[in-house]
Amino acid sequence: MKKNKRKPEEEFKQHLGAFIIISVFLFLLNMFTSPSTWWFKFPVLGWSVGIAFHYLDVYGFPGMGKQTRYTDIQDQSEQPTKISGRLPMNTDLEEEDALILQKEVDKKWRDEDLV
After folding, report:
1. Long-range contacts (CB closer than 8 Å, 24 or more residues apart) made by 63-71
2. What is the average pLDDT value for the chain, to the nearest integer?
3. What is the pTM of this model?
4. Tell me, what DSSP letter sits at residue 108?
């Protein structure tokens, strides 16, 4: 099963959206249940610390920039070159040697492309 990879910027925006929606819900719940006591600020304040750290992790300090961002790293990396081909049918190789060579030809990636 292939895992869906998202960019850190998208994950932060989703985290921020959930924070805003739930903060509004907690505020409204506080207003309808006990308007004299402002308890909603405590979970919102705690969660905002997590949002701040998530922001710093993704974007870095404001004005200073992030030295290596996910998109920069992804742009710099090259995809390995795919190799395709078959051995010629009329070779004078022994069966064992032909199987070894066929495995080399059937490789999807060159050994140099691997880290």
Report:
1. 70/7, 70/8, 70/9, 71/7, 71/9
2. 78
3. 0.53
4. S
